[in-house]
Amino acid sequence: MINRLIANLTRLRYLGLFISVLLTGYCVWLLAHHGLQMGLDFTGGSLLEFRIDTLRSAQDLNALLTPPLKGAIELHSAGAPGEWLIKLPEHALAWSPQELGVMLGEQLGLPVELLRTTQVGPQVGAELLEQGMLALLAASLAISAYLAFRFEWRQALGVLASVAHDALVALGLIAMLGIEFDLNVIAGLMAVIGYSLNDSIVISDRLRDILCSRQPPSIHECTDRAVVATFSRTLITSGTTLFTVGALLLLGGEALHGFAFTLFAGVLTGTLSSITIATPVQELLGLSPAAYQKEMVLPEGA
């Protein structure tokens, strides 16, 4: 059974590479044509938090709104029972938060209490975006330096291609679904990069051990053996992580939706890309057992 799987694995890995390249190209197209819907953290504006004691959903409450509020505001669950959010761009509302609360109470027929108001200026939003991008850049540079030190350059490039694929696919799905790109999504992207890196390194470490053996087989068979040897560990780790993140995605509320979705999509694609991106790329770049074979130094006079 295992020998049969190993015999067919190379073909499946390269088929997965072809599909992953198509998916990456589609996500790049989504980012270029649709772009990211920047959240309040980066664009600036107001975040109003209200207490409305009701068991109705956000969709039901928004359906009760009438002009002039209908179309001007939208209620979102804050995650905690009875707490609701309204996100507004800079200078987008003609009423004060207190006046808005009174109008909401009249239209919903429920008591409405203003809990807090948070203002984010455009300059602060631009600084947050810059700092978030710098954090991603610093993480990427640190990963590149670590891989250059730990692995042969072709293996390192394969792992980097896998990490870049996971980040691009997650961003493409965010653009397609119109999820707000905010600090929570950046935190999710950094977690995805770390998870994808860890999964690819496990396979690469095992492959390096096989390549360093005395009589290693061909590079394709070495890679297939490494994938099979680490498959159970990958399946268990990814399965338990997806179960936890899936629960957060379903039950975490609106405030954590972007973070949970980014992490869920990244873990799912990262599990596959460590096999379908990292391993074929390093083979296409010419990795062979000779890259890790140490030269035998014969004693003098032998």
Describe the structure.
With 302 residues, the chain is an alpha+beta fold. The protein has two domains: 199 residues, Multidrug efflux transporter AcrB transmembrane fold (Up-down Bundle); 76 residues, Alpha-Beta Plaits (2-Layer Sandwich), CATH 3.30.70.100. The strands form two sheets. Strands 3-4-2-5 form a four-stranded antiparallel β-sheet. Strand 3 and strand 4 form a beta hairpin. The longest helix is centred in the last third of the chain and has 33 residues.
**Quick one: how many beta strands?**
6
- How would you write the strand order of the largest sheet? 3-4-2-5
Q: How much helix, percentage-wise, in residues?
A: 55-70%
The CATH superfamily of the largest domain appears as Multidrug efflux transporter AcrB transmembrane domain
> Which structural class fits the helix and strand makeup?
alpha+beta
Could you tell me the radius of gyration in angstroms?
Answer: 25 Å
Low-pLDDT runs: 295-302
SSE ordering: HEHEHEEHEHHEHHHH
Subunit arrangement of the protein:
single chain
CATH architecture title of the largest domain = Up-down Bundle
Largest sheet: 4 strands, antiparallel
Task: Give the number of helices.
Answer: 10
Number of domains: 2
β-sheet strand percentage: 5-15%
Distance between the termini: 46 Å
Instruction: Using the alpha-carbon principal axes, give the shape.
Output: elongated
- Identify the CATH class of the largest domain: Mainly Alpha
